[in-house]
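User: Hi! Is it possible to get a structure for several chains at once, not just one? Here's what I have:
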Amino acid sequence: MITSSTGPRPADFNDVRATNLSVVLRFIREHAPCSRADIASMTGLNKATVSSLVADLMDRRMLREIGFSESRVGRPATMIELDGQPFSAVGIEINVDYLTAVVVDLAGERLFAWRRTFPGADVPAAEAVSAVAGLARRVVNRMSKEGRQVLGLAVAVPGLVDVDGGVRLAPNLGWRDLDLYGDLRRALRDPDFPIEVENDANFAAAAEYRFGAHSGTGNLVYLTGEIGVGAGVVLDGTLRRGGQGYGGEIGHVQIDPDGPTCRCGRVGCLETVAGIGAVLDQAVTTPAEIEPEITQIVRRAQRRDPATLARLTRVGRNLGRGVAILSNLLNPEVVILGGYYVPLAPWLLPVVSAETRALTIAPDAGGLRVAASTLGHDAAALGAAGRVLDGVDSGRLPPSRTTHQPLSRRA
Amino acid sequence: MITSSTGPRPADFNDVRATNLSVVLRFIREHAPCSRADIASMTGLNKATVSSLVADLMDRRMLREIGFSESRVGRPATMIELDGQPFSAVGIEINVDYLTAVVVDLAGERLFAWRRTFPGADVPAAEAVSAVAGLARRVVNRMSKEGRQVLGLAVAVPGLVDVDGGVRLAPNLGWRDLDLYGDLRRALRDPDFPIEVENDANFAAAAEYRFGAHSGTGNLVYLTGEIGVGAGVVLDGTLRRGGQGYGGEIGHVQIDPDGPTCRCGRVGCLETVAGIGAVLDQAVTTPAEIEPEITQIVRRAQRRDPATLARLTRVGRNLGRGVAILSNLLNPEVVILGGYYVPLAPWLLPVVSAETRALTIAPDAGGLRVAASTLGHDAAALGAAGRVLDGVDSGRLPPSRTTHQPLSRRA
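Assistant: Yes, the chains can be modeled jointly so their relative placement is included. Here is the combined structure:
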């Protein structure tokens, strides 16, 4: 006798239709422009169903017809593609001294990016939340003026984010147990779009998986090279966050029990020997201080300054020990170095790769490549915006023919 | 225009039916005994479809009717459950000096387990393959005499197994680049059941996920405590093997760059400071030597022998450093210690847990519990048999009404 409601999810009509809408949408995202017949033949859905699903998605203004195909026998087919124009997906990254917003349309085309300074480490959390909400409001209002519906807002945080969007710990911001999801919903007066809060490395990994040079690589790890070092782990094509969402903290794996003290209070964390602080060989607290220092290091390395090259080799070896942990444990296809590792990549990559191969038991490091990110410092914010699209693609569709109201006019 | 055949998989009639067969089968596995009406109401499939799917599964002899429910209003419903009897799933574990076979029926009930000695480290690979095939043949023939169809054979190997079932490296068996999958298929004369080859820790993790005390825990890691230390990683309810299948090699993560030399040739691997060799504080090569030594250690620890307790504390701390890597990186809900760690658990667990909590940045180790396995040394073979059932549950169904021929009578 059945007593519980667990088990396989019911596959009733609405579910089947939602699944099929999602199948059609993802198919068009990958293969547009294409015809209804193309969709039917490739998805196995029958033509009447495809026509109905396409009509539904057009009613939601997510698709548009773009004329006829001429390369076919018989009647020319009407071609369809995603209609990016009516929609926007907003990603915001909170960093120690700046906020970044990246906005993309439904097709994933970047509409614009804003950056503003933000004394994140020096203000109380409540003020920081106001600043983030203020930026979000400006973006949403601009979208509203342009007639674009906001599909969602996703916010990247450099810290431990739980599965409910709460920030459990963000050492570099001085945050602890902050309900960022709830605070943002309230500050934005319970908007009609979904809000998601996630660790920055996780969103950056999602950006690489969707937009990067290695997009579509099913087993991929992104390493942030900011003040902290964090990992975003994609396995079998999906971001893996662990039971409570706290995975990816490779920066705090103990590499050297006799090493330096970390800002987290522990000793010999990977961050202390392979983070940007170890590259600069001095205590730094803000990116504003780092940028010119990195430029200096690059110049010295280009001049083959022996002390600089030795330091980069040392950091590269330590980073390689961290990458070898990933390699032995997860056998990813690619590990992507982001942030300030990117300008240093010409010197770091060969050392990291060699150390990883030496310390991985699988021959040739199990096929692992180590590469530099091509997405720049916007990766986390871009990935945040992309995750909003992921939500849409997996069935969180905008309603039919609604008009979005600017937030400022709400009660 | 569509030029490639990638994209969402076609959802044609056969696929939909296969998916629905699988939904019904899994529902019955979790909820039996249940009626056709129960299945319809809980899966959302309509009653006619459910009746047809149940008839199909009964034709394959996978289900049976077991009388009527009396606890209902109206007409009594015929109750259905899995019919374990006509089928068997075979798991074999290859270890350094023994082979284990565990056989379960379709319902996952254990039919029997065999263990035979096996000089795995001392014979050429070809002889080892013959021994494994011989054991498999005996099991299959016994099943044949009992009228049970073999649903599949899965073989656990202590080493790096690629996604095609080839053994890339098994240091303790002295194997390198062995096509175990192909060799077994040939030795068994291309049998009519599927064969799978997989790393032992992966199968043990699958056993914990299906049969263990923490079954159903979506984020779970199993650590083998045999001569080697390996991890099987389950994230979001699925075994994660990495790009080439070489994940889980935590035993070869470098813990101490100044540590002892490992059998893999590297220095300071976790195995060298937290494996059973470190517990025994002497070089051992075969389990036959280990068993009585472990018994001695347990006795000494029970007598509170200071040297023994100090050694277990040291090993526990090192193991805790390994578990903290898992914890920081993957945030699992539970890490299960298997093999020889189990009898030592009373002394190891508190130290491992404390060290893990101390070295994990997430508060309270992100909710991680460290526990001893309850499945014993058969875990890998049991998990192998269970993986055969996983294959069936996800649609690799036995054919309708075929009779299985004993292997020995084939050409």
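Chain B touches chain A through 72 residues (CB under 8 Å). Residues 1-12, 402-406 of chain B have pLDDT under 50 and may be disordered.

User: Great, thank you!
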